[in-house]
Amino acid sequence: MPEPEFDEPAEEAGESADESTVDWAALPEPLRARLAELGADALGEMAKVDVPQHLRPVAKFAPTKRARLGGAQVVAGLRNSANFRTAVVEWLGKNRPSTLEVTSPDPVTAAAAAVLTGDDVAPHYVELVSRRVGDATLRAERDAAVVRAERLEGELERLKAERSQLDGAAERIRADAEIELERLRKRLREQGVKLREAKDAAEAAAAEVDKIQVRTAEEVKRLTAERDRERERAETERGKAQRAIADAEVARQSAREARQADEVRLALLVDTLDGAVTGLRRELALGGGTGPRPADLVRGASASQGAVGRVEDPAALDRLLALPAVHLVVDGYNVTKTGYPELSLSDQRDRLVHQLAVLAARTGAEVTLVFDGAGVVAVPAAAPRGVRVLFSDPGVLADDVIRALVTAEPEGRPVVVVTSDRAVADSVRRRGAHPVPSAVLLARLGRV
Question: Fewer CB atoms inside 10 A, N or C side of the chain?
Answer without folding.
Answer: N
